[in-house]
Design brief:
Oligomer: single chain
Distance between the termini: 20 Å
CATH architecture of the domain at 174-250: Alpha Horseshoe
Structural class: mainly alpha
CATH topology of the domain at 174-250: Serine Threonine Protein Phosphatase 5, Tetratricopeptide repeat
Strand content: under 5%
Helix content: 55-70%
Largest sheet: none
Mean pLDDT: 90
Number of helices: 13
Order of helices and strands: HHHHHHHHHHHHH
Length: about 250
């Protein structure tokens, strides 16, 4: 199942340039762990898993009772292909952060990625109903993505539509709804959703790629070519642009 950036709902203020350095003497373990979490995420974003793991394991030694430390450890271990360590860290994060909707959102995503869609859906709905969580539409989209990955397209679409009722022009909900329409062999609806998306938000490689495939399926070669030209011009390094260059079929 594809991973949405939405799945990990952590807001971290990273400096523009993060360097590998020892922490200043006198920092509390909690403060030191927070810095090491930031460093771990910075290296994870660079796909340097070895260094990311070094920093998160340092953070775990400093503050293993922090839900955010455990959740970040779960993500890094999962990406590093260490399922046992990932499962333990995510479970600890959920136990320690039971009242934190962001932590529970993250744990629900993990459940979905490990073929536990029913549990993940249930938890996403709890997050959406939590009065402390100010963006319930995010949890609803995540629930839809979870169920789409499990093959429950009807229910997934209902969650995307519920998210759009809360925020009518939510880009992520529009993209997921459009992709699902295309998967269900309704290229006309997919093409209309792409046009709606582009009327309210800046393009992404993913939405342009969806537009290409939908217009090709409808036999609109000119519209498909226009999307393809735009994709290659605006996102030349994207996977979608490489697929066009490789001649990947619709």
């Amino acid at each position: 199942m594809k991973a949405l950036v939405l799945i990990l709902s952590m807001s971290l203020a990273l400096s523009a340039c993060v360097s590998d350095h020892e922490l200043a003497p006198g920092k509390s373990p909690t403060d030191a762990a927070a810095v090491n979490v930031q460093l771990a995420i910075a290296y994870l974003q660079r796909n340097n898993l070895a260094v990311a793991r070094k920093f998160i394991e340092r953070a775990l030694r400093q503050d293993s009772d922090s839900a955010s430390v455990q959740a970040t450890a779960g993500l890094i271990y999962e990406r590093a292909g260490q399922p046992s360590n990932a499962r333990h860290a995510y479970q600890e994060a959920a136990r320690l952060g039971k009242g934190d909707p962001d932590i529970m959102n993250t744990y629900a995503g993990y459940l979905c990625r490990t073929q536990r869609a029913a549990e993940g859906e249930k938890l996403f709905l709890q997050v959406a109903r939590n009065p402390l969580y100010q963006t319930p539409e995010v949890a609803l989209v995540n629930a839809g993505v979870c169920l789409q990955g499990a093959g429950n397209y009807d229910k997934a679409e209902r969650y995307f539509q519920r998210a759009l009722e809360i925020r009518p022009n939510m880009p992520e909900a529009l993209l997921e709804s459009g992709a699902l329409a295309f998967k269900r062999k309704d290229p006309q609806q997919a093409a209309e959703i792409v046009q709606r998306y582009l009327s309210v938000d800046a393009p992404t490689a993913a939405v342009l790629w969806l537009g290409i495939r939908a217009e090709r399926a409808l036999g609109h070669d000119g519209a498909a070519a226009a999307y393809a030209q735009r994709l290659q011009k605006e996102f030349p390094a994207s996977n979608e642009a490489r697929m066009i260059q490789a001649g990947v079929p619709r």
